[in-house]
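Quick question: what would this complex look like in 3D?
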Amino acid sequence: MESPQTVAIVGVGLIGGSIGLALRARGLASQVVGIGRDLGRLEAARENGAIDRATTDFSEGVAGADVVVVCTPVSQIAHDVRKAAEIVPGSVLLTDAGSTKRQIVETVQRHPQAASLFIGAPPLAGSERAGAAHARADLFEDRVCVLTPTPFTPKDRLDRARQFWSDLGCRVIAMSPIEHDEVLAYTSHLPHALSAALASSVPAEWLALAAGAFRDGTRVAGSDTGLWTAIFRENRGPLLKALGTAQERIAAFKYALMTDDEDAIRRWWDEARQRRQLFESMPSAIDRNV
Amino acid sequence: MESPQTVAIVGVGLIGGSIGLALRARGLASQVVGIGRDLGRLEAARENGAIDRATTDFSEGVAGADVVVVCTPVSQIAHDVRKAAEIVPGSVLLTDAGSTKRQIVETVQRHPQAASLFIGAPPLAGSERAGAAHARADLFEDRVCVLTPTPFTPKDRLDRARQFWSDLGCRVIAMSPIEHDEVLAYTSHLPHALSAALASSVPAEWLALAAGAFRDGTRVAGSDTGLWTAIFRENRGPLLKALGTAQERIAAFKYALMTDDEDAIRRWWDEARQRRQLFESMPSAIDRNV
């Protein structure tokens, strides 16, 4: 573990706030600086203990940092990373917490200084509750964090990023930005899209008769609109493919229903049931949050 | 409340077992008789306190009952109701716990004696865990129970059914069997179908990167295959319509993604989010189980 350091968090919402709480709870930072546009919200995060110091001045906020973690919406991350890279010295680690990676990493790569400082790193954690008020120091405990280095990422930066995220409690793995986005389209973005499709399919006047299956199936449909609009747009290629897979599954089920083919219905359900059981059998599958 | 009575439960799984536990916990029955095909499983239910007495002899089991609750798979309920009606005296209340109603009620109606004793009554409760071992005395507390009388249902039988299910803790409402099936296709059967479509869309080798959205979205995909195959077949007309609605929602989203129409993506998500928030604002929405 490195000696305590100054960490700047750009965007102190649920994820940024949870990083701050975890850093402070684990004694991993001498100072946590929160950077944002809304001083009132930043002050609330400071009162909650997520950050030590709040500023709306980006340059001033990142200037003295050893680590800068960008937690803004995915559509803004590359911009913020490049902006930080122009201010901080070459010893700094730049990382992020965005749920998509290909576009972000490609944009950062075109900026040589940013490219040498940055490692994309979305931890697979979150909640349908947005904002620092819902931040939790244990949000990253035992969660997977996917580092997305490129062939141009310096090895020492990769090692530091690995250390930073595992210090926060994550299980760190690495894959390419493109592979990351293909996988997350299926494992996270598709579940969100289907959750919303389900929520808006049920007429409002029938909601009183909805129960547990609807409740759990639509939980993440309550997530922040801006956040998810940005994620869907950034990852629309892989997500369209994932939606196509789901459409094929639904069409196969409809055909089995239309022909009242008991064996086909049974096989269709069993395949899904086995996939779910495989998921349940994996370590800490049930505790994982978003 | 009526004086303690003998209740026969045909099919002692999750629902039947929970009815037994609730009857006994609330002192609503002098005796609970469990009827099934597997004496070993019935004995286990007896040891768990779900029933007082176990029998595999259908006729002997229902013979002395004041109330017979049929909790077999939906494809078998009408058969069991008619069989019971031929044995029991005319004073008995026959009811069931099946998640579909039109076909069951139509089949029962064609049998005059069964028609005069029977009220369809699926409580909106359940779990992805099948079997009496997962039964709970509080499974019905504050759950909605939909009685499905017909124009031919005697009023005293309707009153007794209302009493029986509300004694178990249900909030009792009534609607026609056809309306019931149309509503449940959207509020329960569609969420189950989409849950399975999601589960089998994600490749097994990527499950280690799935998290909370996948976990909650696929919970009910772990439900019993036989039970759900029967429900889907019984209610395939209304379910096909509900699946069509979900397909339209997914197609609209795909189109918004393909054209990278930020406003359309945002509106699409917001509509779903508002529906989910409306559901959350309803009394005890979040506690309701399946």
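Answer marked as accepted. Confidence is low (pLDDT under 50) at residues 286-290 of chain A.
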